[in-house]
């Protein structure tokens, strides 16, 4: 098999996958933040299904909440999030009041005050909502939910817009974890994606947050951006590690210009190909583990004290729409446009249209757009995929037992896994499937074997997903 030739000593030292392995396994695949994945949700004409599910929410089980704020100050050309640029404050204030209405409607549909362990503000840029409206939203949450005294309360922040005053007001709201969008420190890369922010600016944001008492810091970094090289990505992750964030998410840039038209503004010819992306991801992982970070799942790196490295007893790392988490609640309620709720019965996604969102809520309806009720072996397959994505291994017999099935239903997958073992990316011990260290980059391809919804068009034809490497 041919090894990738690289003059970079860092890369020579890392486990280099053969070119033909990348060619074989780099397909367009879901990121498996849910199973079935969101493109398989079906349109919903009203909120009846969601209301039925909310009415039977168990009163004793803790739940998690997600608030989506779909606004930003300026547009980064790589962005794949559901957001838009807005320069006036009135629509943002109106949106905050719609969120409050949604929280009250959902609270009434549940009929009791569920206990909340995790609360996450995501976007877009959540701080586009001013502090007074954020306080009103918190009051609505407190009216309808019982927030844990030790609430895991997190927010996504754009370091370019953080002030010391705002850091203090976020801490006063009880926020204890902040995720900063860092992406890359190279000025040429930054300019090419319309996002310039100096190292000093990021360092200052970290300092402000820590001074304000928000002690747990996450960074989002990207590889696969225009003009990135193995060396520039390694430089970025090392400089990021100097600031000692507790957690680093190193995402592969998802290029989906048919869905996100502004991505066409990127200099496409300068985008790294699959082989370069593979090398960048692996060299960055090696640099981070060399600095004491532990690898979690596909793309997260955490310091040893982080709960993702050491979940509480009985808990484990799970995967939800925000990526990897130590959130073990079986119910996640999403508020705001495009947000997804996960319930024991299935998924409900809100409309992505701001006007429809506001209109439905003003008429007293929940703004459901799409959904999926679990059927057949969805839950079983979802559990197998989640374990593979989180633990890099799964015991098919154990998962099947949980769902009163026999692992024999996976005979076809076992045959395909056995074929993959020859490539060195996976091993099998009876019903236990173990992704090898060199197979980590290919875990989405291994998980996809268990995806019953993956049509050939998903993998090869009209693109729906981004590249898996
Ligand atoms: C909501 S943003 C973070 C908060 C804030 N808006 C910011 O950018 O600083 C979430 C993260 O998603 C990641 N992201 C955005 N577009 C992406 C894409 N096309 N592919 C992979 N990751 C992406 C970026 O790392 C970004 O920091
Ligand atoms: S990356 Fe963050 S700041 Fe940039 S457009 Fe996307 S959500 Fe907004």
Name of the CATH first level of the largest domain = Alpha Beta
**What's the total helix number?**
16
Write down the CATH topology of the largest domain. TIM Barrel
CATH fourth-tier homologous superfamily of the largest domain: Aldolase class I
Distinct small molecules: S-adenosylmethionine, iron/sulfur cluster
What does this protein look like?
It contains 16 helices and 20 strands. It has 2 domains: 9-32 and 378-459, Arc Repressor Mutant, subunit A; 38-333, Aldolase class I (TIM Barrel, Alpha-Beta Barrel), CATH 3.20.20. The longest helix is centred in the N-terminal third of the chain and has 21 residues, at 90-110. The strands form 5 sheets. Strands 10-11-9-8-7-6-5-2-14 form a 9-stranded mixed beta sheet. Helix 6 (164-172) links the parallel strand 6 and strand 7. By secondary structure, it is of the alpha/beta class. Bound molecules: S-adenosylmethionine and iron/sulfur cluster. Iron/sulfur cluster (SF4) binds next to loops.
Primary descriptors:
469 residues, alpha/beta, TIM Barrel, 2 domains, 9-stranded mixed sheet, 35% helix, binds S-adenosylmethionine, binds iron/sulfur cluster
């Amino acid at each position: 098999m041919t090894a990738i030739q690289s003059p970079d000593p860092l890369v020579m030292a890392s486990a280099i996958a053969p070119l033909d392995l990348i060619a074989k396994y780099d397909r367009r695949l879901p990121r498996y933040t849910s199973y079935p994945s969101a493109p398989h949700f079906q349109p919903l004409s009203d909120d009846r299904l969601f209301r039925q599910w909310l009415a039977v929410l168990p009163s004793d089980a803790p739940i998690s909440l997600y608030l989506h704020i779909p606004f930003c100050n300026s547009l980064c050309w790589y962005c794949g999030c559901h957001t838009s640029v807005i320069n006036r404050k009135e629509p943002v204030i109106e949106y905050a009041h719609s969120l409050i209405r949604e929280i009250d409607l959902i609270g009434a549909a549940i009929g009791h005050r569920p206990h909340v362990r995790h609360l996450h503000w995501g976007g877009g840029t959540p701080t586009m909502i001013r502090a007074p409206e954020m306080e009103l939203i918190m009051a609505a949450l407190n009216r309808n939910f019982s927030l844990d005294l030790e609430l895991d309360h997190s927010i996504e922040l754009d370091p370019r817009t953080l002030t010391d005053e705002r850091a203090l007001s976020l801490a006063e709201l009880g926020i204890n974890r902040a995720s900063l969008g860092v992406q890359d420190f190279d000025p040429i890369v930054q300019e090419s994606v319309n996002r310039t922010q100096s190292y000093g600016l990021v360092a200052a944001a970290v300092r402000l947050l820590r001074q304000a008492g928000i002690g747990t810091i996450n960074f989002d970094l990207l590889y696969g951006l225009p003009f990135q090289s193995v060396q520039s990505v390694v430089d970025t992750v090392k400089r990021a590690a100097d600031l000692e964030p507790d957690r680093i998410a190193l995402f592969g840039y998802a290029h989906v210009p048919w869905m996100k038209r502004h991505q066409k503004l990127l200099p496409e010819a300068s985008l790294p190909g699959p082989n370069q992306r593979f090398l960048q991801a692996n060299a960055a992982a090696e640099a981070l583990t060399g600095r004491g970070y532990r690898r979690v799942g596909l793309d997260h790196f955490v310091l040893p004290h982080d709960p993702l490295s050491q979940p509480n007893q009985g808990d484990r790392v799970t995967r939800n729409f925000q990526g990897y988490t130590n959130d073990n609640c079986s119910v996640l309620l999403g508020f705001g446009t495009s947000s997804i709720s996960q319930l024991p019965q299935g998924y409900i996604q809100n409309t992505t249209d701001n006007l429809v969102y506001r209109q439905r809520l003003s008429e007293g309806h929940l703004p459901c757009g799409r959904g999926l009720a679990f059927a057949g072996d969805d839950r079983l397959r979802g559990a197998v995929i989640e374990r593979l994505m989180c633990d890099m291994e799964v015991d098919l017999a154990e998962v099947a037992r949980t769902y009163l099935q026999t692992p024999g239903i996976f005979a076809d997958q076992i045959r395909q896994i056995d074929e993959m073992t020859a490539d060195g990316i996976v091993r099998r011990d009876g019903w236990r499937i173990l992704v090898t260290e060199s197979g980590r980059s290919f875990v989405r391809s291994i998980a996809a074997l268990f995806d019953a919804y993956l049509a050939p068009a998903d993998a090869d034809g009209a693109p729906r997903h981004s590249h898996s490497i």
